[in-house]
Amino acid sequence: MTNTSVGNAGRLLWAGLRALLVLTVITGVLYPLAVTGIAQLAFPGKANGSEITDASGTVVGSELIGQTYDLPLKDGEETAAPDLKWFQPRPSNGLGTNTVNGRYKLILSGATNRSGDNEDLIQWVKDAKAAVIKDNSTASYAVKPSDVPADAVTSSGSGLDPHISPAYAKLQVHRIAERNGLTVARVDKLVADHTEGRILGFIGEPRVNVLQLNTALRELSAG
After folding, report:
1. Which residues share a beta bridge with 82?
2. Is 180 exposed, middle or buried (0-12, 13-18, 19+ CB in 10 A)?
3. Long-range interactions of 116-125: CB distance < 8 A, separation 24+
4. Cα three-residue angle 193-196-197, rounded to 5 degrees
5. Hey, which of 41-55, 101-115, 152-166, 188-202 has the most confident mean pLDDT?
6. Which position has the higher pLDDT, 66 or 89?
7. Using CA atoms, how far apart are residues 222 and 175, in angstroms rounded to an integer?
8. Does the predicted TM-score (pTM) go above 0.85?
9. Which of 14, 34, 77, 90 suits 223 as a labelling partner, its CA being 20 to 30 A distant?
10. 183 Cβ partners below 8 Å, 6+ apart?
11. 3-state DSSP call for residue 197?
């Protein structure tokens, strides 16, 4: 009886081990390779993270994740000031940094989780609106409070939204033109060329990818 029980246990263990090995090869090796191969053949761009490259072929980030464009921190500063020669994204504490130089570091993702009547949130929005008006007004162009769209002063739910509204992009045109020595018409056309319509014509809203826009801006400025 004892020998029979030991033999049965041994056979069961060996059968289980064989099943484990077979399933490991199928689900842990063959299936991932097959899915990866199909993705690379059918959707290579999306499979590789929807990367954006500049004119030199350097990867500068992903079109799916927003990035900030800030100046280096000065002594005593806790929050970096925006680099106003670039188009600015939506406000967020969760974005990585990028100066269109190929370096990218993701920090965190998340929203404020504050209600619409929260005093801190209301003050943040007021401060952000005042900053947008100040930063984007030039000697020949004055931004009015009514010109500031909601996405210029509020973050997205994830805090990683790579897009801004065409209204917010156009609001920045005069400042971008002045800071980069370009005409307003050229920068305005740049925004128009990078404005995406609604998906399938009816899903979502028109939008502008900030990284793609700034990558094109750098090339325009260099030319």
Report:
1. 70
2. middle
3. 124/91, 124/153, 125/153, 125/154
4. 125
5. 188-202
6. 89
7. 18
8. no
9. 90
10. 177
11. coil
